């Protein structure tokens, strides 16, 4: 028993899936839709660490089909295994917390209580928080002039398809305060990004800040200029995988379905391509995919856009998160003192 049927049987516990047709059908329906109870980006984020947990359990001769019967004390030992790995890598406690959250999420989707609530699991998490000290990750903000530099260099008349898609993606992420996962999702569904005379409308059916799955719409104005976020050549694909052919670059996959969706460019590939492009135009900052979300919000703050407007545009729930994503350059930071009337 594999796939949906296995998950349905897990949801039913000791009740056989075929014992009652109506109950069986309901269990299959729940098993096939359970993943929608969490943001798609969350489910995707936990895919790899969940497989790492399954691989570790297999070393103990615990099959994937039996994973939901694993004792919580054994899960605590897995978290201790992660702790020791993190300790050797000299990074912070995030991996331990992430491994715990991964297991909790998958047990939740299987309708089972999470073994990570056991005191032994709490002990490992607390141990990690108190003793694992990693280097603080500081994401630099991308500046408007950086977007213009990249567009001028990589989006000219003879630009390649991969470069055009990257520049368009960077501009849209900057202007829409978007995460990589947001853009990766809309980039493979044409009806989620539509162009109008004055603006583009981006629909996020589900995102990290929309746990209830109500959907959010972002509008980005058509501003003109080399760094205008409107995709070059119209509403074309962004972040698609591309192959080189004798006729030039072409999309690896042109059509998809619900069962076989078109894959986006991976986060790692996007990050590496972004770093190479920044290096090529002389951008010295440590620009990461999240730098566009930080940079767009920071640029708006420096130009007097209210915190409330930025909070709505960035889909943040609290003022504290808006402030966390705001980096003021020296000139903008000094503007307050210059307007005190002391001169």
TrEMBL record:
GO biological process: DNA integration; DNA recombination
Lineage: Eukaryota, Viridiplantae, Chlorophyta, core chlorophytes, Chlorophyceae
The keyword DNA-binding belongs to this UniProt entry's keyword annotation: yes
Key word Cytoplasm present: no
Protein name: Tyr recombinase domain-containing protein
Keywords: DNA recombination, DNA-binding
Protein's organism: Volvox carteri f. nagariensis
Domain of life assignment: Eukaryota
PANTHER family (UniProt xref): DNA ADENINE METHYLTRANSFERASE (PTHR34605:SF4), PHAGE_INTEGRASE DOMAIN-CONTAINING PROTEIN (PTHR34605)
GO molecular function, one term: DNA binding
């Amino acid at each position: 028993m594999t796939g949906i049927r296995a998950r349905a049987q897990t949801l039913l516990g000791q009740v056989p899936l075929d014992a009652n047709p109506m109950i069986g059908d309901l269990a299959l329906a729940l098993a096939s839709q359970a993943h929608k109870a969490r943001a798609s980006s969350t489910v995707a984020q936990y895919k790899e660490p969940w497989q790492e947990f399954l691989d570790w359990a297999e070393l103990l001769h615990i099959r994937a089909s039996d994973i939901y019967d694993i004792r919580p004390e054994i899960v605590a030992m897995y978290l201790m295994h992660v702790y020791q790995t993190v300790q050797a890598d000299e990074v912070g406690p995030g991996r331990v917390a992430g491994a715990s959250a991964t297991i909790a999420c998958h047990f939740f989707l299987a309708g089972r209580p999470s073994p990570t609530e056991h005191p032994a699991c709490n002990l490992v998490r607390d141990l990690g928080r108190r003793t694992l000290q990693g280097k603080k990750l500081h994401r630099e903000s991308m500046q408007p002039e950086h977007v213009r530099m990249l567009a001028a260099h990589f989006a000219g008349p003879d630009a390649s398809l991969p470069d055009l898609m990257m520049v368009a993606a960077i501009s849209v992420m900057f202007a829409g305060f978007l995460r990589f996962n947001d853009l990766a999702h809309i980039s493979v569904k044409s009806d989620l990004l539509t162009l109008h005379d004055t603006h583009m409308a981006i629909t996020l059916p589900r995102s990290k800040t929309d746990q209830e799955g109500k959907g959010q719409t972002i509008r980005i104005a058509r501003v003109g200029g080399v760094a205008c976020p409107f995709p070059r050549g119209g509403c074309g694909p962004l972040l698609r995988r591309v192959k080189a052919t004798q006729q030039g670059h072409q999309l690896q996959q042109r059509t998809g379905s619900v069962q076989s969706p078109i894959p986006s460019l991976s986060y790692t590939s996007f990050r590496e391509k972004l770093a190479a492009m920044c290096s090529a135009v002389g951008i010295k900052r440590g620009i990461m995919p999240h730098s566009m979300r930080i940079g767009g919000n920071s640029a708006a703050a420096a130009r007097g856009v209210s915190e409330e407007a930025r909070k709505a545009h960035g889909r943040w729930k609290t003022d504290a998160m808006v402030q966390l994503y705001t980096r003021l350059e020296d000139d903008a930071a000094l503007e307050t003192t210059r307007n005190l009337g002391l001169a």
